[in-house]
Design goal:
The protein has 21 helices and no strands. With 446 residues, the chain is mainly α. α10 runs antiparallel to α11 and α17 (337-353) runs antiparallel to α18. The protein is globular. The protein starts with 8 loop residues before the first helix and ends in an 11-residue tail after the last helix.
Amino acid sequence: MTAVKAIDDREVRGFSISALWPVRLLGRRPGLKEANIVCWGLLIAFLLVPSFVVFILQARRGSESIQRHSDFVLYYGDGTLANRYPAPKIYDPNLQHRVFLEICPHPRGAFGVSPYPPMVPYLFSLFARLPFTPAYFLWMLVSLSLYCAGIGFAAKAIFPVDRPMRALIFCFALAYFPFIGSTLVNGQLSIFAVFAVGLGLYYEQLGSLFYSGLALSLLTYKPTLLLLVLPMLVFTRRFRTLAGFCAGSALLVLVDTILGGIRVWPAYYQLLEYHKKLTGLHGHADIKLSMYLDFSSLTHLLPGGRTPAGLALAAGLSVVVGGALVLLLWKSAKASRSVQWLAWAATLTWTLLLNVYVPIYDSVLAVIAVILTLGALRQLKWRIASEWITLLAIITLAVSWKTVSFAKVHHVQLLSIALFLIAVAQLWFLRRAIQQGEVATPALES
């Protein structure tokens, strides 16, 4: 008999949040059906309809209004550069700036650079053949489709027969500000991350680990998102997944090289070096720090964060958490499916924090991390833990709508705090689940 009990109602009965649910129907706590009715009703009435009306009014003012409020200018500009100039010129920061201003002459702020690998400019070269406004709406449709597909793949993998749960997941995923405000309307690329991870998890649950790795290779569009994912694949001995990732990455590099020629890579590297200066990796940061969640950006945002004491504290915390995560990932390699989900969840959430460049829109990966956590806790029958992680997820959803404005005024990133609490909880759940010593799922063995 294991020395560590499962977290169940008898163990933590006094800490249940069941009584905190604000809606009770017919004298009982509402089920998923009632929760879906309430949540979808609120989403449609107070978010989707007003947002649609505001967006239509903005669109009627002309393309300039959209351009001033959308990062899609950068990607449309990348596509324009790919259509007009030889491949190395795509990464000339001065030329990028000139083309961006040509598309949007009166931006809200100064344009940065677009530090994405060649696959991105060549993809958006297709959109740049259209006028800006039709291209923008087409990209919004593609973004919504990829986001829903990624969330759908993850939800199907974790809750294969629970349609009400999957419907509720979609409701909260669509209501998350980093998606609807910072990604969909803003035209950002983080939907690629959601799609890649969601599809990768789906293939993993089918036992097709090589195809899971192929899906994850799409994350190479932004290498910082791989900072913990690749070590996780190594420490959990997902070697077939890693092989698929390497094969997919090699194929993407080959396609980029065919399209752009070998000279595109030195130009890309030089732009990355220039971008490091803008993000503060070599000193002062020239970016809007209120839009970033990672510990590195927080050291710039917080008073005293870049002092020796502040940097030492951040480095110490990162080392402790990183060491704990590595140890738990190593121990989780032969554990049950629920433990594997918690390993994935902890990796994704900590990727957003133990990093050097994580804008708010990349936190859409936290949605998949929460899905994984809830699925694992359900399999482990840790009902009270599920209630608490649900409460933390709701708080995260709420603060996501105010975190940027709050950080501008108070120099504190509320979303980072919320994600930190979820990440700590995931580590603790992972540790307890490993200590229960469950048998590994054959489909996940490498």
